[in-house]
Specification:
The structure holds two protein chains of two kinds. Chain A has helices at residues 23-27, 36-60, 64-67, 80-90, 93-124, 130-140, 145-159, 166-172, 176-189, 192-200, 205-234, 237-242, 251-256, 266-301. By secondary structure, chain A is mostly helical. Chain A has a domain at 91-257: MetI-like (MetI-like fold). Chain B has a domain at 103-337: MetI-like (MetI-like fold). Chain B has twelve helices and two strands, in the order αββααααααααααα. A two-stranded antiparallel sheet of chain B has the order 1-2. In chain B, α7 (193-221) crosses α9 (238-266) and α9 packs antiparallel against α12 (306-337). Classes of the chains: A mainly alpha, B mainly alpha. At the A-B interface, α1, α2, α5, α6 and α7 of A face α1, α3, α4, α5 and α6 of B.
C-alpha cells in the first residue's frame, strides 16, 4: 500500500512535450506553464477547501461565549484538548471509533475481494450471460439508497439487528462500483497471455486468481479499498437509521448527536466533528497521491 | 486480444506442456488417455463454472440487499405500514400516491430538490472545469493542490454540515461578518428561502468540486497534444483552444459527472437534515430547504408512515429513470453529431 502504483495513472506530473516545436508546443494546452493568476486562483481554492476544516479546530478550541461574538475567532484558543477530551467521553467516541473501524474495515476488505474476483470474471473470462449480468451491475448503480432503506429497515427490525453492526455492514457490501472499477482495471492491466500461461502450467481458476489476478490487481485493490473505506466511514443515512446514539453508533451517528440540547454546545459539536474527520484526513495526507491517482484513473476508464 | 480457448477440450498438459486446445498428435497409451480425459472433464467444469462462482457472491448480496428491497418498496408503497409495526401491512392501493400528490409539501420538496440541485450542481461543475484547466498547466507542487482539493471529499457530511451551520450563522457567523465588512446587510441563512438553499448547496459544492476537478483533469490529460498544436498553428488563443479543443473532448466526461451529480442531488439528505438549526426533519420552519430525501425521512421515520415513505421513494426512482432516459437521448445525439 505504501508503494506507488506500478502503473502510474494520471497522477504523474504532466509529461514534458514529446516534440519540441519551440513556442508553439510550449503554448499548447496541457503544457502551458502556469502564470501568477493561475497560482492565485489555486491558492484561493486551496484556502477555501481547507479553511472549514481548520476553522472546525479553531471553533473547538474556543468556548461558546467566544463563538457568540463578532468578529468570529480566527485563531486557536487554549481549550482544544479539553474539548476534544470532553467530546470523546460525551459521545462515547472511543466505542464509535472502534465500531466504525470494524464496519469500514470489514466492508472495504470484503468489497475489494468480491469485486476483484467478479471484476476478473467480467473482464477476462467468457461465460454465457456475461453481457447481461454486467448490464445489471451497472444498472444497480442507478438505484437510489432511499429506495432500499425502507425494506432493509424492515428486514433489520425483523431480524432484531437494530443497534448491531451487521445491520450496517451487510447492506454496504453490495458495491456495483467496485465490480465495475476492478473490471475496467483488469481489462487493461492483465494480459490474456499470462492467464493462458498459468493455465498451461495446470493452474485451475482459483489458482489463477490467487497467483495471477491478485498480484496484478494489487494497486487497484489498494485504491478501491481506500475509496470504500472512506465511503463507509462517512456513510450517514443508513447507519443513522439503524444505529442509535446509545447502541453501537458509528462515528457519524455519534457526532450527529453531540451537544444537542436546548442550547446546543457549538464548541463541543465542532470538537466531535473534528475527531470524526481527523482519521480520514490523516489517511489522505499519507496516501493522498495514490487516492488522487485512483480517482483519476477510474475516471478515464469509467 | 481475445484468443482464449475456454471451450476447447484442452488437457492441462502437465506432462507434455502442449498448448491447450491443440490436440496431441501422437498416439497415447489408453491409461494416459483416460487420465487426460478425466483431467479434461474437470478442466472443462472449472472453465465453464468458475466464472459464475466468481460473480455469484456479488449477485447473491445484490439479490438480498438490492433487488429484494427494490421490489419490496414497490409492494410496501401500496400498503399502509407503520414504523412501529413494519411487518403489519394493510392493502391501500394507490392511496399513498394520491395522498402525497395532494400534499403541498411533496411538491414543495420536489421543487426544492430541483432548485438546490441546480444551485449546487451547475456552479460546482463549472468551477471544477476551470480548476481542472489550471491544474493541467505545468505547476509547482501540483500533488499538493490535488490532495488539498480532495480534503473536503474526505470530510463526512455530518462534520461538513455542522461547521457550515456555524459559518452561516445569522448573528455570529463568519460569512455574515464578512458581508458586513463590505457593507452588505446580514442575511438570515436559516429562515429565508433562497439564502437557506444557497447555504445548503454550498456544502455540496464545497465537498464535491475538488473531486470533480480531478475527474476532469484526468480526462484533460488524455487529450492528444497534437490537437492543441494544430489549433495553435491555426492561430487559436488559449481561450479558443479551451473552447474548441478541451470542451468537445471532455463531452463524455462532462456528461458522466452531470449524471453522477444529478443522482446525488436528487438524493440529497444529510446536508439539509443537519443544516436545520432546530434539528427537525422538516427542512426549516417553512420547509424552505426540505428535499425529497428529507421529506421521505420525515414521512417514514418522524410521522411513522413507512408505506407513504415507500411511495415517495418510488417517485424519486421514477424521476431518476426519466433523467436516465433524457441523458441517454442527449448522449446519443452528441455521438451522432460528432
Amino acid at each position: 500500500m505504501t508503494t506507488t502504483l506500478t502503473k502510474p495513472p494520471a497522477d504523474a506530473e504532466p509529461k514534458p512535450p514529446k516534440r519540441s516545436r519551440g513556442l508553439k508546443a510550449a503554448r499548447a494546452g496541457g503544457q502551458m506553464h502556469a502564470g501568477p493568476v493561475a497560482y492565485l486562483i489555486l491558492a484561493v481554492f486551496t484556502v477555501v477547501s481547507l479553511f472549514p476544516l481548520v476553522w472546525t479546530a479553531i471553533a473547538a478550541s474556543r468556548d461558546n461565549q467566544r463563538l457568540a461574538q463578532t468578529p468570529p475567532p480566527f485563531w486557536f484558543g487554549s481549550g482544544l484538548f479539553d474539548k476534544l477530551e470532553l467530546a470523546w467521553t460525551d459521545a462515547n467516541l472511543g466505542e464509535a471509533f472502534l465500531n466504525t473501524t470494524i464496519v469500514a474495515g470489514v466492508s472495504a476488505l470484503t468489497i475489494v475481494f468480491l469485486s476483484t474476483i467478479a471484476g476478473f470474471a467480467f473482464a477476462k473470462l467468457k461465460f454465457r450471460g456475461r453481457g447481461a449480468l454486467m448490464l445489471i451491475v451497472i444498472g444497480t448503480m442507478m438505484v437510489p439508497p432511499q429506495l432500499q432503506v425502507i425494506p432493509l429497515y424492515m428486514m433489520v427490525a425483523k431480524l432484531d439487528w437494530t443497534d448491531q453492526l451487521q445491520a450496517v455492514i451487510l447492506p454496504s457490501l453490495v458495491s456495483a462500483f467496485g465490480v465495475f472499477f476492478m473490471r475496467q482495471y483488469l481489462l487493461q492491466a492483465l494480459p490474456d497471455e499470462i492467464i493462458e500461461a498459468a493455465r498451461v502450467d495446470g493452474a485451475n481458476s482459483w489458482r489463477v486468481v490467487w497467483h495471477v489476478v491478485f498480484p496484478t490487481a494489487r494497486p487497484a485493490m489498494a485504491v478501491l479499498g481506500m475509496l470504500m473505506f472512506v465511503q463507509t466511514w462517512n456513510d450517514f443515512l443508513w447507519p443513522f437509521l439503524v444505529l442509535t446514539q446509545t447502541g453501537n453508533p458509528t462515528v457519524q451517528v455519534a457526532v450527529a448527536g453531540l451537544g444537542r440540547g436546548y442550547t446546543p454546545d457549538q464548541s463541543l459539536i465542532m470538537a466531535g466533528a473534528l475527531l470524526g474527520t481527523l482519521p480520514l484526513l490523516l489517511v489522505f495526507a499519507i496516501f493522498g497521491k495514490q487516492i488522487v491517482g485512483g480517482i483519476m484513473q477510474g475516471a478515464v476508464k469509467g | 486480444m481475445a484468443t482464449r480457448h475456454d471451450t476447447a477440450a484442452a488437457p492441462p498438459g502437465k506432462e507434455g506442456g502442449a498448448a491447450p486446445a491443440r490436440p496431441p498428435v501422437e498416439a497415447v497409451p489408453p491409461e494416459v488417455a483416460k487420465k487426460r480425459a478425466r483431467l479434461s472433464r474437470r478442466w472443462q467444469r472449472d472453465v465453464r463454472w468458475s466464472p459464475y462462482a466468481f460473480v455469484s457472491p456479488f449477485f447473491l448480496l445484490f439479490a438480498a440487499f438490492g433487488l429484494f428491497p427494490l421490489i419490496y418498496t414497490a409492494w410496501a408503497s401500496l400498503h399502509t405500514v407503520e414504523l412501529t409495526a413494519p411487518t403489519d401491512m394493510e392493502w391501500a392501493g394507490l392511496r399513498n400516491y394520491t395522498r402525497i400528490f395532494d400534499d403541498d409539501f411533496y411538491w414543495n420538496a420536489a421543487k426544492n430538490t430541483l432548485t438546490i440541485g441546480i444551485i449546487s450542481t451547475v456552479p460546482q461543475l463549472m468551477m471544477a472545469l476551470g480548476i481542472a484547466h489550471i491544474l493541467n498547466y505545468r505547476l509547482r507542487a501540483s500533488t499538493f493542490y490535488r490532495v488539498a482539493m480532495l480534503a473536503p471529499y474526505a470530510t463526512s457530511i455530518a462534520a461538513a454540515s455542522l461547521v457550515f451551520v456555524l459559518l452561516f450563522g445569522r448573528d455570529y457567523g463568519m460569512i455574515n461578518w464578512a458581508l458586513d465588512l463590505v457593507g452588505i446587510d446580514r442575511i438570515d441563512w436559516q429562515n429565508e428561502k433562497w439564502p437557506s438553499q444557497i447555504a445548503v448547496s454550498s456544502i455540496v459544492i464545497w465537498r464535491w468540486t475538488g473531486y470533480n476537478a480531478l475527474i476532469y483533469l484526468a480526462a484533460m490529460q488524455a487529450i492528444p497534444q497534437d490537437l492543441y498544436e494544430s489549433a495553435a498553428l491555426d492561430g487559436a488563443n488559449r481561450w479558443q483552444q479551451f473552447l474548441h479543443v478541451t470542451l468537445p473532448s471532455l463531452r463524455p466526461t462532462i456528461l458522466f459527472t452531470v449524471v453522477v451529480s444529478t443522482i446525488g442531488a436528487s438524493q440529497l439528505f444529510g446536508e439539509p437534515l443537519l443544516f436545520d438549526a432546530n434539528k427537525g426533519a422538516s427542512g426549516g420552519a417553512q420547509h424552505q430547504f426540505q428535499t425529497l430525501g428529507l421529506y421521505m425521512y420525515e414521512q417514514g421515520w418522524v410521522n411513522q408512515h413507512l408505506g407513504r415513505a415507500s411511495a415517495i421513494a418510488w417517485t424519486m426512482f421514477l424521476i431518476l429513470i426519466v433523467i436516465g432516459i433524457v441523458n441517454y437521448v442527449i448522449s446519443r445525439r452528441l455521438r451522432a453529431s460528432s
